[in-house]
Amino acid sequence: MTHWPWLILITVYGACVGSFLNVVIHRVPQGRSLLRPPSSCPRCGHRLAWYDNVPVLGWLWLRGRCRYCRVPISVQYPLIEALAAALFAGVYWLDYLSGWRKDFQQAGLGATWPALIVQLALVGGLLAATVIDARLYLIPLRIPYTVILLGLLILPTAAAFMPAIRPVTPVVGPAAVATAAGSVIGLALALLLLRMKLLPRSFDELEHQLNQPEPPDAFLSHPHPRAEVLKECLFLLLPLAGALGGYWFGSGIVAGPATEPLAGSVLGGMVFGYLVGGALVWAVRILGTLAFGREAMGLGDVHLLAAIGAVMGWLDAVFVFFIAPFLGLAGAVAAKGITRVLKGQERVIPYGPYLAGAAVLVMAAHQLLRQIFGILQV
Ligand SMILES: [Zn+2]
Q: If you measure from the C-alpha of residue 39 to the centroid of ligand 1, how many angstroms do you get, rounded to a whole number?
């Protein structure tokens, strides 16, 4: 099969997605709509014509200035578009041409294209999260949520109609499915209790002060990070109990000798990957906050690794979790010099970009990592 037409198509698609990501990067942190109003010059308010909006080329054609008032347009726009185009082409090359992903290559584009679409959505989401986190030290939850929702809609549906896609989806066996189901039930109960105000909300200082003019317990009611994450521990008790119960129940289910994955196991594998990814970062957040007495890792990071786990599977989420700190350390050293890092003078560093970078690395090294660790199927 000839790959050139597809590579060109995916590159153009990537540039267009990059154009959309520019809108995401500027509007989502402010909670603005992505659809309205259409993009216009921030100074003169003129709307951009379709030919000025063509990714990369529009900016080059205008030489980086507004057509009407000549105000400079940030070079970030064409850079994000070019980067998205290169990343999308790179993912296609990785899956079908590099030989690093035999799972995709052997099944072929015709059998795996829905998984490619979800992979590209994840990469796009990671790019947007990286830029926003590096600028504002936050990850809007709409980004991981959108990736997860898209994945949940596409992958299990595709697996139902195209069995050949299963090897490139996060398929898991019955024990993991039952563990995931138990956690989800526990999570739903905990969220219900939170909503009914039977569980305390963490980092909700303002509401706390309004509702309790005279705090009864000095430690727990003080707006103190350690006390706040203890509330999160309380919240996590139910999902944890659900996971243990589910595992106990699920490990009793004996799969047949020629283990055929359960019908719902792609969905189960996505939910399981989501939970493993989220749990890993949340555990670090709790332990780190308890140890250092200041809020460690945002909930945005929790949801970002959860999205990575949902799309790439639980094992890849574990790999990402252990590789990201090394990237973070390398990034901090490169940016500030080794002596300042060793002296602990670094500011709060955004963690999202390193999770995103590690996810792309693990996507490429998916097969290699399994060979190294001798893990074939879980
Ligand atoms: Zn203008």
A: 11
CA of residue 78 to ligand 1 center, whole Å: 17
3-state secondary structure of 116: helix
**Amino acid letter, 258:** A
* Angstrom distance (rounded) from CA 104 to CA 114: 11
Whether pLDDT at 217 is above 90: no
Which pLDDT score is estimated for 255?
A: 54
pLDDT of residue 212: 45
Q: Is the pLDDT of residue 179 over 50?
A: yes
Determine the distance separating the centroid of ligand 1 and the alpha carbon of 321, expressed in angstroms.
44
How confident is residue 199, by pLDDT bands cut at 50, 70 and 90? Answer: confident
Separation of 253 CA from ligand 1 center, angstroms? 65
* Best mean pLDDT range from 148-162, 216-230, 338-352: 148-162
Domain parsing of the chain, residue ranges? 1-98
What is the total residue count of the chain? 378
What pTM did the predictor assign? 0.88
Copy the structure tokens of residue 339.
């002596």
CA of 48 from ligand 1 middle (Å) equals 9
Q: Report helix, strand or coil for 352.
A: helix
Contact between residue 278 and residue 300 where contact means Cβ atoms under 8 Å apart: no
Rounded to whole angstroms, the Cα distance separating 334 from 347 reads: 14
Q: Which residue has the higher pLDDT, 204 or 323?
A: 323
Query: How remote is the CA of residue 59 from the centroid of ligand 1, in Å?
Result: 13
How far does residue 134's CA lie from ligand 1's centre (Å)?
27
| CA 83 to ligand 1 centroid distance, Å | 25
